Amino acid sequence: MAGGFGVATGGVEFEAKITPLVIISCIMAASGGLMFGYDVGISGGVTSMPEFLKEFFPTVYKNQQDPGLTGNYCKYDNQGLQLFTSSLYLAALLATFFASYTTKTLGRKMTMLIAGILFLAGTAFNAAAFNLSMLIVGRLLLGCGVGFANQAIPLFLSEIAPTRIRGALNILFQLNITIGILVANLINYGTSKLTNGYGWRISLGLAGVPALLLTVGSLIVVDTPNSLIARGKLEEGKKILRRIRGVDNVDPEYLEIVEASRAAAEVKNPFQNLLKSRNRPSLVIAIVMQIFQQFTGINAIMFYAPVLFQTLGFKSDASLYSSVITGLVNVLSTLVSVALVDKAGRRMLLIEAGVQMFLSQMGVAIVMGLKVKDHSNNLGHGLGILVLILVCSFVASFAWSWGPLGWLIPSETFAAEARSAGQSVVVSTNMLFTFVIAQAFLSMLCHMKFGIFFFFSAWVFVMTLFTIFFIPETKNIPIDEMNDRVWKKHWYWQRYMDDFEDGPKSKDQV
């Protein structure tokens, strides 16, 4: 395909081409994002379908038919309904620790296969559910699949991609998540029109398509050279490295991977190793980014978009239609990130988006505060369109920043000896706070009303300040050179980069 290019790495050139094998492998692996995105998008639409509510959540169905019983903000406030959505993320939180082990010992490819099988099993339970227990079991199995997929896929993408396009290829995972959400919204819109009462079963059952894509894709892709070399398969690792780079001279990169793997093998307890001083910058930023990503409020909107738009006074059809629009904006804006992340850099996207998200959410909060009351709704057509535009502006800015970069930056900044354990902490932290938001949002909306958007705006303000002061630029830097070229040169994090000791040298450095 493209011609060769070199990456300067401390005076050594890593020769590489953008080979068809790399592109195909990354597309196949990123299809796991389709499954994750479909799960995120499908639950919100299904939980707004009267037939689904009547069968599994009759109390919510009654409130939906007569909002006067609870008021506009509280008609969906139900812990069981929230558990249907959030149970997936609780299972993902627990599964990611098992996934850390399989990613290290069995490889990235095998872990993706396990994820695909779990997705297929969860889909079968959900589509065939005849009681709430079966629904929850299905969601738990899907959650286990998410834990395994989110552990293996970002690592796979970062390790197999040439440095110059690592950001763009890694964001394929996030792009597929957004496509999955959009497809789920479109399917929900279509199945909600069915009059046989089984529209929700079709919505949940079609999750089998992306699940099958990931399962088949995981059988086709090659494992990463880093994973093969770390498991002692040196010759196979070198052979795959030649294939994915499209050149014969891979010795410089191969030797660096071997050395990084040797250092990683000396670490007896990867999770304990994460706490060492030199890994602290990567760990702190990874954890904080996952917390901030959820407290932007994005998943509150993505999980419950139809419910939220109905709260704002949109009719059932209009709320699902509005969700499709926000889903489409999500996909297109993620493409903006793919185009800009390796040119403009990570920091610029995060900071610009912080300002845009803050202004958009403040606008929604003000409109809702003035026009949407407990037992009345004066939003009107014009203001309804304005709210939809503000929500789209918020979704767009998130999609080209904190959405993909929340996964990309942690996956490329951990040192080799901490990479698998670090990714496990990233996924588990993300799933923990996704669970918290999913389980709490409808109750928060009921009690905080329009103030919930002021709450999320405050978090966006704080995270933008954190980006300015503490998140370094990592574009075009090989993942095994982050310590020397990023952390040791950062005004704050350099104090933790001691080559000879595990901790800072002096008290004033702490």
TrEMBL record:
Keywords: Membrane, Sugar transport, Symport, Transmembrane, Transmembrane helix, Transport. InterPro entries: MFS_dom, MFS_STP/MST-like_plant, MFS_sugar_transport-like, MFS_trans_sf, STP/PLT_plant, Sugar/inositol_transpt, Sugar_transporter_CS. It is a multi-pass membrane protein. The chain crosses the membrane at residues 21-38, 81-99, 111-130, 136-157, 169-190, 202-222, 283-307, 319-341, 348-370, 382-403, 424-444, 450-471. Pfam families: Sugar_tr. It comes from the Eukaryota. One of its GO terms (molecular function) is symporter activity. Residues 25-475 form the Major facilitator superfamily (MFS) profile domain. It is found in: Membrane. GO terms for cellular component: membrane. Belongs to the major facilitator superfamily. Sugar transporter (TC 2.A.1.1) family. NCBIfam families: SP (TIGR00879). This is Major facilitator superfamily (MFS) profile domain-containing protein.
